[in-house]
């Protein structure tokens, strides 16, 4: 066994706990998870069905943690995990899965299949079977502080730009601020208006906030590639900055997996509860709404719908807040068929969009979202994840559909009363 | 060995062996799962784990509308034979008598014609499920020898039971012995297969609901 | 001679223009940063935007083309970002803003959106050139002058 494969197998072993054992013990091969997964429904390729993606983990569980499996292993009867298997599984575990979790909502015996696939990635990555794009992103995240190579001067330039445009001062490294805003590289590079929108809202809401120059990156490539050690290191940077600035709440911006990483996996990765709260920007904005801190003027004339970013809605628990906020500036809001926690994934999260090899399939599975949109025919789509946004735009362009994407935060900011 | 001796053995020693292996096997499988444990969640909770877990144990039995539309056959056929199994095993007068002997108490039964009809419906459902498993591209891909073996072991008691009750073919004692043997076969193999889902699904659903409930999502 | 010295006046003046005028002014803003994009589709899109007599069909074709240019120039999540390339992305965004019908435009002002994207294009280039100038400083003032001249014409 090569050193890498051994590391992969050990990583998989470490991932097996009572939840994994309960899930694999219960799977009856009923196939319902396939019907819930857009990577199967839009490709008709059986191998892309959810529980199949976790096969490497299942083999380790069976052969190491069950009596029957261990006995079978002694006689060479249990299915093995080797490089050939992991190579074959690369395009299933990384290219054909966004960890959206729809399968986990549907499995009749209750298996959290997305969790199993997330755990499988730990083994894949440790054995050297992660996609190139993700490896690059993760390396940049660790060495530069941003998976896209965004350095502090670039952020400061964007901040300077916002200050010039709005006349507001963006508070940087302010100790004792209530909120510390994180930003995803996607936003800094592709949607820097988000910074301006957030600044305006905080200003009008009258709250103290800041951005830390030592930890401004929200994206956690470690989670996407499936290397918990790296994910932990990236989280620790945020923890250190938040503690140094003594902020009460860290805000995760409009990025799906960033929220999952810092809000739900964060403390478990670093091994300690946080001394501060973590909230998604939508949760914070909704709190402002409840406290009466947001004065909104004018309505969006267009017919709006909301695309639920999977890590924020279904896997994150922030489902009602975006709707409360949208209703502040819209009287013409329509839900997608299959909405809220059962909404369909855009197809690009969890590292899929970082992976050039997955471009074709990513655009193919967009068909599911297209079908949803064809049913309700909205004028515009509101969402709260930069990655969903770019991919939806990509997909809409590919299928010649003319439906603009709106960021919820940016749209809300536009309707702030003076 | 005469018919009666065969039946006696099946009812006596055979039954004991089967039950011991079944009980021991189930306990071992449970231990294998629970002893692994899981780490405490250190993130700030948004909802209750226990509440979420208990809730999902119940609600996962009811698929949402869209899921039901996409997976109609699996859900309907699955429910038919599961309910059928429950009725034929636990609400059939002769079986309840058997339980009374073993555990000390019984309970009301359903009229025999009803149970009989449910057995037939379940057998048909299981046959349809086999055909589906062999023809559907996802199921063909994912199915293993175990799936087909378990299918066989599940339908055999239903078929042999029906035949035994209606005294078709051989003499009553032999038919009965074969039926009981088929059940013992099922019991013996049960703990080593996916049939364990009958017990472990409570854990799996609980974990699912707990994980989601912690995050404030009802799953 | 109109005097525009700050963003509030700038934004108001733009919003007071009708749809066609906004498109023409936006085209002027974009022409100033056009060199930051090497995508021919943007050149053609800006020509259409600057053409006062362009038909609805020509505008919508140019818009489609500019949208495709955005998708090709945006940086994928996790990819190594290049601010010089991003400048081209923002120029494409400006072109789309200029050609988007007013009703669909954010805050109902295509020219304002185009102006913002042009400034971001300039900021992007300055990030790469490690210039110590205030980012977008000269671009804002240049845009005020262009608008003022346009209003006088």
Structure description:
The complex is a heterotrimer of chains A (418), B (219) and C (153). Chain A has 418 residues and is mainly alpha-helical. Chain A contains 23 helices and seven strands. In chain A, β3, α17 and β4 form a beta-alpha-beta unit. The mean pLDDT of chain A is 95. Chain B has a single domain, classed as Fumarate Reductase Cytochrome B subunit, CATH 1.20.950.20. Chain B has ten helices and no strands. The N and C termini of chain B lie far apart (56 Å). The model of chain C has no long low-confidence stretch (mean pLDDT 86). Chain C has 153 residues and is mainly alpha-helical. The longest helix of chain C is centred in the C-terminal third of the chain and has 20 residues. The interface between A and B is large, with 62 and 59 residues.
Task: Summarize this structure briefly.
The complex is a heterotrimer of chains A (418), B (219) and C (153). Chain A has 23 helices and seven strands.
Question: What are the salient characteristics of this protein?
Answer:
heterotrimer; A: about 425 residues; mainly alpha; Fumarate Reductase Iron-sulfur Protein, Chain B, domain 2; Rossmann fold; 3 domains; four-stranded parallel sheet; three-stranded parallel sheet; 23 helices; 7 strands; about 55% helix; B: about 220 residues; Fumarate Reductase Cytochrome B subunit; about 75% helix; globular
Topology:
The complex is a heterotrimer of chains A (418), B (219) and C (153).
Chain A lengths: L2 H13 L2 H9 L5 H5 L1 H4 L8 H4 L1 H11 L1 H8 L8 H13 L6 H5 L6 H14 L5 H12 L8 H15 L12 E3 L3 H6 L2 H13 L3 E2 L10 H5 L2 H18 L3 E4 L3 H15 L6 E4 H10 L13 E3 L13 H10 L29 H7 L1 H10 L3 E4 L2 H13 L6 E3 H7 L4
Parallel strand pairs in A: 1-2, 1-3, 3-4, 5-6, 6-7
Chain B lengths: L2 H32 L14 H11 L5 H6 L1 H19 L2 H11 L8 H24 L1 H6 L2 H21 L6 H18 L7 H18 L5
Chain C lengths: L6 H10 L2 H15 L6 H11 L5 H18 L9 H17 L10 H20 L7 H16 L1
Helix pairs in contact in C: 2-3, 2-5, 2-6, 3-4, 3-5, 4-5, 5-6
